[in-house]
Amino acid sequence: MKEPVSWFCSGALAMQQTFPLDALDLDRSKQEPLHRQLYQALRGLIQGGSLPAGAKLPSTRSLAADLAVARNMVIAVYDQLVTEGYLQNRPGARPVVVDLPLRPAPPQQRQLYVRGCGLSRRGEAMMSQPFHHGLPGQIAFHPGMPDARSFPFGAWSRLLARRTNFAGASLFGTYNVTGHPALREALAAYLRTARGVRCDADQIVITTGAQAAFDLLARLLIDPGDEVWMEEPGYLGAQSALVAAGAKLVSLPVGLDGWQLERPPTSARLIYVTPACQYPLGVTMRMEQRLRLLEIAEQSKAWVIEDDFDGEYRFQGRPIPAMQGTDHSGRVIYVGTFAKILFPALRLGFMVLPSALYRRIPHALSITGQFAPLLLQAALADFITEGLMSRHLKRMRRIYAARLQGFHELCASQLSNRLTLLNGDAGIQIVGLLQDGFDDRLVTQAAQDLGLNLLPLSKHYRHGSPRHGLVLGYAACDKPETQLGIEHLSRALDISLRLRKNERHDPA
Prior knowledge:
Elements lengths: L9 H4 L20 H15 L11 H8 L3 H13 L3 E4 L2 E5 L9 H11 L3 H7 L25 H13 L15 H15 L8 E4 L2 H12 L5 E6 L3 H9 L3 E8 L2 E2 L8 E6 L13 H14 L2 E5 L24 E6 L11 E4 L2 H4 L2 H8 L5 H12 L2 H27 L4 E3 L7 E6 L5 H10 L5 E2 L12 E5 L5 H27 L3
Parallel strand pairs: 4-5, 4-7, 7-8, 8-9
Antiparallel strand pairs: 1-2, 3-10, 5-6, 9-10, 11-12, 12-14, 13-14
Helix pairs in contact: 2-4, 3-4, 6-10, 7-14, 8-14, 9-10, 15-17, 16-17
């Protein structure tokens, strides 16, 4: 129960010294120790100005009596406040509050002060970038979201437990900042076989997701004002990382017939592409376009970031080999992620760096602190080497192929007069182009209110006139969820038309 309080403490009464004893709210029902409660209360009174500079505190004996606590506890609290510089002890006298050089402002003033500080230009750029990570519990159709329910968590848990039990000190320190050696070896073997990447384990850097790789590469490779040839429409995460680093984005147009490489920027410092399965359109870069792009990079002395975010998921024939495998100039940086193969919350990605970069990359990584957990990396190495990842991928390709076909059929039967799906045989999302009269941002807004997680296609454009459509992730939804999601999408399309009609008639 709380202690009774008074505005005057016994020792202070004789000297007519007021002290806000009411503020020392000691509650014995709390788990927090009484000495900690007293320390925090006294410090708060000093910081908030209730005890101004020069104010005398009660004697340890009188305060202990009024609070019904041990005097030694009060002595210890006073000593702590003296040590931290809040109080000054005087021989034979009560401690007094120190005149601190800077006192915190009241909450409202403090908020204004923080706003007045402002951000750096880089900070403003970072905070102004688009954000989309979805919300849990929504029905559908989050782009890029795999079906985590089909992941073999039983086998994964056993691998984690085994690594934990026999880890030793090597997995619990800040070692191997470029990645656990076993994972880098396993990943190099996998990439050579499955993706046609030319690499050794030494070239691989494990990151905390592909986005961490984009952020680091943007800071390493470009200076403010440098031109970057960026796909349009293009991936928002990569765009944001490049803009935040000061890049000037130059449009690399992508259409259903591929990449338009006729007019490259004359001073491009970096080129970003998704050749295996373009995001968001889903088209694949043909060999002549790949060779032309590499030729342009060589002529411009530009780096190339190849983002292979879900190249493993191709449902007709074998996956298309990575462009990096045809690069002989050492300009292509290959970036991948386990978010689409396994599950996003794992937060593991990787880069394959040319020799000009990987020798000094540990120095840059040590600054960022972006070290992927070694325990997870070790378990993932086992997951790959024991064949579990290959089996999981094979199974998920069958599941996603069936879901993609079913998604096409349901959309054709229920949305054909309003939404046209692009043909695609790769990736775990698909673009639906809206018929004339629809605004994809209004559709997305209405869909969100109905529990759907969509992205407007127009959001992926930074230049010129955007196309209106929806980026729809179909992979994480089974048949009943897809059916329900499309019913909700149909309602959202109807609602968006009414919203647009109201906008047109709004006199404002």
